[in-house]
Amino acid sequence: MDLSSQTSSLPTCSVSLSINGQKHDLELHPWVSLLDLLRGPLELTGTKKGCDHGQCGACTVLVDGQRVNSCLKLAVSLDGSEITTIEGLGSPENMHPMQKAFLEHDAYQCGYCTPGQICSAVGLVGEGHAHNRAEIRELMSGNLCRCGAYTNIADAIEEVMGAEAAKSNKEAAE
Amino acid sequence: MRQFSYSRAETVSDAVAALASNPEAQLLAGGTNLVDLMKYNVTRPGAIVDINRLPLKEIEDLPNGGLRIGALASNSAVAYDPRVQERYPLLSSAVLAGASAQLRNAATTGGNILQRTRCYYFYDPSTPCNKREPGSGCGAIGGVNRIQAILGASDKCIAVHPSDMCVALAALDAVVEVEGPDGKRDIPFTEFHRLPGDRPESDNTMARGEMVTAIRLEGNHFASHYTYLKLRDRLSYAFALVSVAAAMEVSSDGAIVDLRVALGGVAHKPWRDKLAEAEFAGQPANEETFRQVARRLLAGAKGQGENDFKIPLAERSIIRALKQAASGRPQDQSVKAIQ
Amino acid sequence: MLNSSKVVGLPLSRIDGPLKVTGRAKYAAEHFGPGMLQGYVLFSTIATGRIAEIDTSEAERFPGVVKVYTHENRPPAAKKDEQWKDEVAVPGHPFRPLENDRVLYDGQPIALVVADSFEAARDATSIIRVRYEAGEPHTDLKREQDNSYVPPVPRDKQMAPPPPRGNPEGAFAQAPHQISATYSLEGEYHNPMELFGTTVIFGQDGELTIYDKSQGSQNSHDTVCKIFGLDPEKVVAHNEFVGGAFGSGLRPKYQLFFAVMASLDMKRSVKVEMSRREMFYLTWRPTSIQNLSLAADAEGRLQSVMHHAMHATSQYEDYQENVANWSGLLYKCDNVKITYEITKLDVSTPGDMRAPGAATGVTALETAMDELAYEVGLDPVELRIRNFIHRDQNQDKEITSKALHACYREGAARFGWSERVMQPRSMRDGNDLVGWGMATGVWEAQLSPAEARVRLSSDGKVVVSAAASDIGTGTYTILGQIGADAFDLPLHAVSVKIGQSTLPKTAVQGGSWTAASSGSAVQVASRMVIATLLRHAQKMENSPLAKATEEQVEVADGRLVLEANHQVGVAISDIMDAAGVTFIEENGKVEPDPSIQKKFSAYTHSGVFVEVKVDEELCRPRVTRVVIAVAAGKILNPKTARSQILGGVVMGLGMALYEEGLADHRIGRIMNPNIAEYHVPAHADVEDIEVIFIEEDDDKASPIGVKGLGEIGIVGVAAAVSNAIFHATGSRIRSFPITLDKILADNLLESETVQ
């Protein structure tokens, strides 16, 4: 897909990205951030722009399983990467456990920082460095929530971490 | 942002050549600082050389018990590496005190040591700034200077270096490995960053065309007596007002054998005074000594008005950090009570 | 009054939640039209003066750029102030983007670049060259305060200070206990996480579909129709999802103007999304300076209250908020003087920010009350209880309900307040000094005129619709609950349509009035649907409801039945079949009842209890525990209600400890216009917060007994934190935010004095 047709006088680069399991072969201007690629040409607007400078975490996505700020990534620099956005984690009909926990715990209000919070929380659980509430709070501090849902976000993450721990204990026992 | 050409370097010499051949070129690694600055039009490179494919991600054991950390190892990879946690817990702690988990996943070791100041005036291209635009003046002097330097500043620039990781690396006497058109060389960490003097545009002592390839750490005896203590305006995800990396070796009778203190948030570079540290060898590791250390380190400190508080804050922080280090109870970055 | 039922009063999850947690909810800048263009704004870098020259030639040649707008080529728009005034405009001359060469504040928009991509628009903006003739900026409130004045045109009647009563000066002079102090608060910035943005889809016949970040789609709609002289029928404005606003979206912002202007000019779809930096140039909670004098008798009874408040406004509008009137009504006092002034600065017009006025004024009042408690030697809760009054002395009216005693009692009990030692610096935990502080919160319980439509279908499904907004408040869910309650349905059987200008008329979402107003309108419309059902049922042969009145029937289990005997009734589907209809739809309307308003004032109240720990040497404060007890009438949904209060408390923590625009008055600029250096609370700053609701039965505040929760959570929080810091450290900091350097400075002063 050539997304640069209207400003075609400018140089582009070939980039191949896997986004939510779907392969995209793109011709991109090098100055396009992953965030703007997602929210603009690809119309994957679940990933949010809150500051565009790595100050808020609303744009958090998983790149090769790791949570990063998509606003500070030039899309061309991610050639060959696997990207998971909030849309790829689950749908309203088939939610990811973290999405269900956020819903249940009212871990959001306006919902704008929420996709970034959820991607970040999924990344956090995968990293395995948070073992208590203080560590959850510290390691989720890259996601600002102006509605102040932090207490509920910590509850939601604790629940999912507890469920994961219970699951792995059970598997270990078996 | 200025539009730029983009290329990917496959080898270090490719990258060095690209940098050397084009004065408008800059290297892109994690992008967490460079892309930010480009979006604010603070930095306007004409060419970006993407070095993410270079084989510089490894953290390797060195024969002397040290480690070589590749320039592209992410901040997270460094902080959570079991060897770093075991041998250089100060480094791990300092890295975890900085930025956010997302930024640490993307930011690299080389990028971290090359990050630019957070001075408000540097970040605002419509104001004068000798660092951004040599000769234009310094907006921060006489302006909003709450976050600025109290040590080593000049009448050209009062900005501070924003890194936490670098404060630990300064304390640990790391070595920066660089490679340029004339080959490879080592730069001792404390000589890597520079004070602003008359050339605040220059953050470090690398020559044009050189790039950082690794950080080297020698074996050390600080794994049980260390701390990284950071004071900032909110409890996480904020730059330091003052930070202290402290490490010491203490004899069985409680005397200081080897002392390291580096300060963040107070100067244009991580602040260390090796001569001062040496004076305290043999002194008892107690509060009175620590007070003298603090006063000695801050002897030349000078405030700018709004940031005068950093002097007593730094003094008290140094004392507390040394107490933490001496007692073997380092600050846990998730625990917000100051230990 | 609405009673708790199968759906009302239950902690149900938000019905809009699945879309939000999966990224499917579409916010203003997330809509697309064919061939859509993107706009990017250039803002001024002087605070006052004029644009001598603006050179856009290079930007116009930039690849992808379609057009650059400046004051030299802006398409025509309305000429009169009246046409620019939106639903909640303040007295003065509304700002008109690109009207002329004048610059009134730093960050004023001075050009719009429209291009075929976001990047082209952004990057071309950076090469526009501007030459200014700059004037000397006046942005320092402390330096300009001698120029303050009483606003000649009050924003509305409620906001003018009440007339003085008694003899406040004389009573002050004679009282045995007096305190008098000055409190200053730095400017705060709303910073909702969503950037202001507008997407305009240009239709084939020139009709406009507008997605605007706004707290009122009808306000956006009506304002652009007036400014551009558009046929209201050919414009639809949407705000189905709003990524936070906190007051910043009450008045339309300039990106709406720009997107519509460019769309009309080029007959193309256009999107304009702001940068975070621009979010600091829109509107703000103004910097303020307040003087408070309180006097009490030996038992702590207030003898005199004198409160003078002053805050900043812009050069072009007289922004006003109710800062000080609270001091005349929260406690009993017969000698009261309240004065209020504003001061013009070279800044953008301030605006309402969560609990506008109260968050500022009650911070000063409640810190002063704590000072008085120490002056008298009384426990701070006891002092407040001794001055309790169940009457609004400002307006000499009764109060609809005021369960503030219960807030103190329950809050104090949960917090463990009785363990508190009065003496400052008497509690510690390791290196930390521990402090416990409290404050009272108060906010108006308002009802605004609102309409709603309810449709009941023969299959039992209900659709509720209104032009209301949900800025994170839970409007979707509570309107659904009220609809479900009326027809005895589970919540999922009700769909809620809000956030569109074509829906029944609703005011902007502000002042905490949406739940009370739109909620009541839904209940009224639902009752009207039931009345229509009854009329149809009574036309049926041998109708068992033939003699029933509207008041005697309700819906239960899909049937219209007698309230007193559910055996007697008719199935809704049978009624509709008999009437030959497939649905019944009615529009309901509520407005304030003048007979109640004449006699009563309505407020929400809270008791806030805060624990801080301040490192004794390093002076770094942190809030470790908050208990807040809130009396706000009927709670429709304890889950979303709790979230509203949590949010208010967290913003209050930011106000207390972190949030301030750091200004360089030499150039009239905020130097930290970003959310790395303007610190809003992060996860690590928020330990656990406990919320207690004290339910009040109040049939006068609103027809459904709801009082609203959007603001009350923040009021008093900053004072409770400052009081706790005093209790911990003995340092009384009267300048907000209380950053560690202020505590440290006081500590150094103290140790010098001791030496």
Strand order of the largest sheet of chain C: 3-5-1-11-8-9-10
The pLDDT mean of chain B sits at 97
Strand order of the largest sheet of chain B: 4-5-8-6-7
What name does the CATH topology of the largest domain in chain C carry? Aldehyde Oxidoreductase, domain 4
Q: Measured on Cα atoms, how large is the radius of gyration of chain C?
A: 27 Å
Helicity level of chain B, as a percent range? 25-40%
Radius of gyration of chain B: 19 Å
GO molecular function (chain B): FAD binding; oxidoreductase activity
Protein name (chain B): Xanthine dehydrogenase family protein subunit M
Keywords (chain B): FAD, Flavoprotein
InterPro entries (chain B): CO_DH_flav_C (IPR005107), CO_DH_flav_C_dom_sf (IPR036683), Diverse_Substr_Oxidored (IPR051312), FAD-bd_PCMH (IPR016166), FAD-bd_PCMH-like_sf (IPR036318), FAD-bd_PCMH_sub1 (IPR016167), FAD-bd_PCMH_sub2 (IPR016169), Mopterin_DH_FAD-bd (IPR002346)
Task: Describe this structure as you would to a colleague.
The complex is a heterotrimer of chains A (174), B (339) and C (755). Chain A is 36% helix and 14% strand. Chain A is of the alpha+beta class. Chain A has a five-stranded mixed sheet. Chain A is globular. The mean pLDDT of chain A is 94. In chain B, 27% of the residues lie in helices and 20% in strands. In chain B, a hairpin with a 5-residue loop joins strand 4 (59-61) and strand 5 (67-70). In chain C, strand 9, helix 7 (217-228) and strand 10 form a beta-alpha-beta unit. Chain C is globular and about 90 Å long. Chain B: Residues 1-222 form the FAD-binding PCMH-type domain. Chain B: InterPro entries: CO_DH_flav_C, CO_DH_flav_C_dom_sf, Diverse_Substr_Oxidored, FAD-bd_PCMH, FAD-bd_PCMH-like_sf, FAD-bd_PCMH_sub1, FAD-bd_PCMH_sub2, Mopterin_DH_FAD-bd.
How are the elements arranged and paired?
The complex is a heterotrimer of chains A (174), B (339) and C (755).
Chain A: E1 13-19, E2 22-28, H1 34-39, E3 60-63, E4 66-69, E5 82-84, H2 86-89, H3 97-104, H4 114-127, H5 133-139, H6 150-173
Parallel strand pairs in A: 1-5
Antiparallel strand pairs in A: 1-2, 3-4, 3-5
Helix pairs in contact in A: 3-6
Chain B: E1 5-8, H1 12-21, E2 25-28, H2 34-39, E3 47-50, E4 59-61, E5 67-70, H3 75-80, H4 82-87, H5 89-96, H6 101-106, H7 109-113, H8 165-171, E6 175-180, E7 183-188, H9 189-192, E8 211-217, E9 226-232, E10 240-250, E11 256-264, E12 271-272, H10 274-279, H11 287-297, H12 310-327
Parallel strand pairs in B: 1-3, 2-3
Antiparallel strand pairs in B: 4-5, 5-8, 6-7, 6-8, 9-10, 10-11, 11-12
Chain C: H1 17-21, E1 37-43, E2 49-55, H2 57-61, E3 65-69, H3 81-84, E4 102-103, E5 109-115, H4 118-125, E6 129-134, H5 141-144, H6 168-174, E7 177-185, E8 197-202, E9 208-212, H7 217-228, E10 235-238, H8 254-266, E11 270-273, E12 288-296, E13 302-313, E14 336-344, H9 358-376, H10 380-386, E15 391-392, E16 397-399, H11 404-415, E17 428-429, E18 432-444, E19 450-457, E20 462-465, H12 475-486, E21 494-497, H13 514-539, E22 553-556, E23 559-562, E24 565-571, H14 572-579, E25 583-590, H15 594-599, E26 600-601, E27 603-615, E28 621-631, H16 638-657, E29 663-664, E30 669-670, E31 689-693, H17 717-729, E32 735-736, H18 740-754
Parallel strand pairs in C: 1-11, 7-32, 9-10, 13-14, 16-26, 20-21, 28-31
Antiparallel strand pairs in C: 1-5, 2-4, 2-6, 3-5, 7-12, 8-9, 8-11, 12-13, 15-16, 17-18, 18-27, 19-20, 19-25, 22-23, 23-24, 27-28, 29-30
Helix pairs in contact in C: 7-8, 9-17, 12-13, 13-14, 16-17
